[in-house]
Amino acid sequence: MIRAIGFQNAKVHYSLGMLLLMISSVATAMQPMFVGQITEAFAGQKPVVVTTVLFLLAVFVVDALGTAGSKLVMGIASERFVFNVRNSVARRILHTNHRSFQSFDKGDLNNRVVEDIPAIQRPYFTTYPELLGAAIVALLCFIGMVFTSWTLALVLIAVLTAFGALLLIVLRSIRTAAETSRVAESAYSSRLYELLYNFVPVKSLGAENWVLRALNRRAESSRVNGVRLVGVSSLILPIINMATQVSLVGVLLLGGVQIGNEDLTPAALATFFLYLVYMISPLVTLGLSLGELREAAASHARLQVIYETLPEDETQPQYRFSSGGPGATFRSHNLAYRYQGGERVAIPDISIEGPGIYCLVGSNGAGKSTLFLLMNGLHVPTEGSLSWNGKRIHEGLSSDLRRFVYLMPQSRDVLSTTVRDNILMGAVIEDAEIFALAFRLGVSNFLEGLPDGLDTQIGHEGVELSGGQKQLLYVFHALLLRPPVILLDEFASNLDRDSKAAISDALTELATESLIIVITHDKELLTRFPRHITLG
Ligand SMILES: Nc1ncnc2c1ncn2[C@@H]1O[C@H](COP(=O)(O)OP(=O)(O)OP(=O)(O)O)[C@@H](O)[C@H]1O
């Protein structure tokens, strides 16, 4: 499946690359034959045939051009492969349901996309072509050897079979070592992610050394596993070296004996030896490539897990929510949600009639944020039921439901893009409407003071916004889109008095047609919006 995704629009380049590679490999394997003929002419003190020399030069050129051309088109195809798979995995991650997404560690997920995808393209674009080229050269050289001296060729087979068996045992251990090494690297990446995210608290608590020690422990585990992998992989080359040395010595000794017995001519031994030398480099490539294949298999398995454990979210909801005029109604019955860690959050039976504004209150951990996630379908109830406008919510409805119920979560950050993109998040709304809203909220100065207006870049390459300015942008989205239901989790915690009052006015106006539920601990807002729903 991953292979089919990766090869979209890359097959033509790939096939051309393979063809060029095969041509250059045949050209390589023909060289000993021509060199052998020239050597025999020298040895027999006969004139060298010009066409043989010309053929030798021609195969040199074809070899060089074929190798370079093949590398180029394969490179183009491999970049396309990585691009395709990255897009597909990112799509799967963003389209999966919330519960499956939560089961993944974010650093680990990042590591799989950034590291494992380039790792899995290697077999197709480097290893298999190398294997094919090596196999063609080795096979043709071997045929040449059989025709030169079949007894020496038999000895060679015996030696290579013995060392081949040894190689297989090593290759099996490489796959296991590669898997544990990738897991350790991901664990390091996850920890690093968390710590970078918490840079400010770490610095202000003076916890740099404590954090470094935690990071070092993961780095140490990654190092130990890396060493283990390098350790097993490093056995490949000595095995191949030994195999070639034993082959070379064996052929020379046995060939010498055969020459003594007049079963073989010195020129034939020279040609056989030449074939063997030409065969050695492909054999080394073959051994090393097989090792790389085992490492890539480990990465492939990690990516496969993403496709298997992140199901694609529903694309065609069977039921379309519509506000059907003002007044969304919500009901819950025996509702509970159990987190994967085992925490069970029970929600009392609730009945809410829109439009209007309600405050959702309760102590820390009472389940307010959990209820919001259930209300907009990101969490699917593990017990009981909930319904909007009499329609019971189940998993298949969630994507349509989220267009009906807008949720602004408690923890959110701006994206490194323009102010306009951060406000709209893909929605199509005229700039004039954004400025009109800013004017109504009394925050025009904020938007007009930005260096490039709505095109101002936010993030490390642009301006930094204050916590309150960020919250303004998040609330803008809801006020502009005016969805039938709006859930705001602590929307005002960083807003100044004036902004809070202006947004509250705007929400009150919006609440004539929409149902707005606000999670807040703010006394002013609790007084202003007197209808409360209490949890816990
Ligand atoms: N991702 C999670 N995995 C496991 N348990 C969770 C998760 N998120 C919340 N919980 C648990 O669910 C319970 C309810 O949490 P929730 O965030 O809904 O409370 P809350 O009322 O919004 O709290 P607060 O006012 O502090 O934001 C808590 O006991 C919390 O530990």
Topology of helices and strands:
Blueprint: H1 2-6, H2 11-43, H3 50-95, H4 98-102, H5 106-148, H6 150-197, H7 199-204, H8 208-233, H9 236-260, H10 266-309, E1 329-338, E2 344-346, E3 351-353, E4 356-361, H11 368-375, E5 383-388, E6 391-392, H12 398-404, E7 405-408, H13 419-424, H14 431-441, H15 444-448, H16 467-481, E8 485-489, H17 497-510, E9 515-519, H18 523-528, E10 532-534
Parallel strand pairs: 4-9, 4-10, 7-8, 8-9
Antiparallel strand pairs: 1-2, 1-3, 1-5, 5-6
Helix pairs in contact: 2-3, 2-5, 2-10, 3-5, 5-6, 5-10, 6-8, 6-9, 6-10, 9-10
Bound molecules: adenosine-5'-triphosphate.
Summarize the structure.
One of its GO terms (cellular component) is plasma membrane. It comes from Mycetocola lacteus. The protein is an alpha/beta fold.
Describe this structure in words.
With 536 residues, the protein is α/β, with parallel strands linked by helices. It folds into two domains: 2-309, ABC transporter type 1, transmembrane domain (ABC transporter transmembrane region fold), CATH 1.20.1560; 329-534, 3-Layer(aba) Sandwich (Rossmann fold), CATH 3.40.50.300. The chain contains 18 helices and ten strands. Strands 1, 2, 3, 5 and 6 form a five-stranded antiparallel sheet that branches. It has a five-stranded parallel sheet with strand order 7-8-9-4-10, sandwiched between helices. Helix 2 packs parallel to helix 5. It binds adenosine-5'-triphosphate. Adenosine-5'-triphosphate binds at residues 339, 341, 343, 345, 362, 364-370. Residues 339, 341, 343, 345, 362, 364-370 line the site of adenosine-5'-triphosphate.
